[in-house]
Amino acid sequence: MYQTPFDINFVRSQFPGLDTPWALFDNAGGSQIAEQAISRTTDYLRQTNVQHGASYELSRLAALRVEAGIEVVRQFLNVDESCEIVAGSSASQLLTNLSLAMRQWIRPGDEIIVTNLDHEANITPWLRLADYGAEIKFWKVNRDTLHLETDDLRQLLSPRTRLVCVTQTSNITGAIVSVRPIADLVHAAGAYLCVDGVAYAPHRLPDMAAQDADIYVYSQYKVYGPHVGMLYVRRALMEQLGNINHYFHAESLPYKLQPGGVVYELIAGICGVGDYFELLSDELGNDADLPRRKKYRKAFDAIHAHEGRLNSIMISYLQSRDDVEIIGPALSDPDVRVCTVSMSFRGMRAADVTQRLEESHIAVRNGNFYAARLVESLGIDDPGGLVRVSLAHYNSADELDKLISVLDTCR
Prior knowledge:
It is a single chain. By secondary structure, the protein is of the alpha/beta class. It folds into 2 domains: 8-33 and 292-407, Aspartate Aminotransferase, domain 1 (Alpha-Beta Complex), CATH 3.90.1150; 38-272, Type I PLP-dependent aspartate aminotransferase-like (Major domain) (Aspartate Aminotransferase, domain 2, 3-Layer(aba) Sandwich). Helix content is 38%, strand content 14%. It is built from 14 helices and 13 strands. It has helices at 8-13, 35-47, 57-77, 91-101, 124-127, 150-156, 179-188, 208-211, 235-238, 264-283, 292-319, 350-359, 372-377, 397-407; strands at 23-24, 85-88, 111-115, 135-139, 161-167, 192-196, 215-219, 229-233, 324-327, 340-345, 362-363, 365-367, 386-390. The strands form 3 sheets. The chain has a 7-stranded mixed beta sheet with strand order 2-8-7-6-5-3-4. It has a 4-stranded antiparallel beta sheet with strand order 9-10-13-12. The protein has a two-stranded parallel ribbon with strand order 1-11. Helix 5 links the parallel strand 3 and strand 4 (135-139).
């Protein structure tokens, strides 16, 4: 049904970590890093490993390399200003810091809406604001469909709603949540929208101009780059928030939300992720003169198509078995889901399935994947949680065939 638009061998050759006997299907926990990002990181350390802020040439060059990494993120997210980009160690850390900056912004009686679909990174930081007067409401998934219904959100919104927090893609169900209709509802209520894009950004190109989120977070180490997290905060909102940095950074954007220096070499390394997307775009056709953002779009259109093929293979196989329950949409449509698939096996514990796969050098994981509230709501009584197979665009149909052949023995 879906044609692979690129040479999978070419794509795989760009990721040194794939040179292993293991078939890697734990990509939702962390992707492989592109060779270009490794080179950019090591080049920074070899050539410009000095402190920023000095007037000598090497210090200025080092700062420019880090600024270039932030510029890649700005274009990746399609936002207006680099000062709206905050760097940190992970999405969890960034959202925790953001909640600290909101303590004075939140007024007693203000309402914050969170979901039970999200990774805990987009729940716990907001629950803690209850200590500062916020009232927390839960927007719960439809138990039958595991979807978030916008009609349910309408019932929760009120004139006191200040912030709504939602995921763009569940790291359990793989289902894509349409952000723009939610943003329109939230903004009509006079509130702000915080979107966790961690499980979305490796598979589909984020677009803040189209999605209209006020806050967006993703993990660069799950998008083929170094181990850092990236946060977008709309400037108009960032200016209202408290300062969690030194007192003299109270008006400095984004430094008021970014205590301490970033890990310079890792942010510089993000440039290599941009290099990879541009290389993939150029490999797909003769559009070498396209602007950078359009090259990203072209690369992700190809990723979308390839993952549609992988989805079709995986979901079709699982649907053929009456002893496997797919958690989330039992559809292969890449507009509906990414290729992160969680499942339970009748008659086998999740940990035993994982072990069986590991014996054949197939890397998957079982657990609740920090989406504990969703797994608890499903009534999963297996202490090992669910089995999750999470693919990336560098996974091949041959690898998937190997996975399926071993899953066939898990009965």
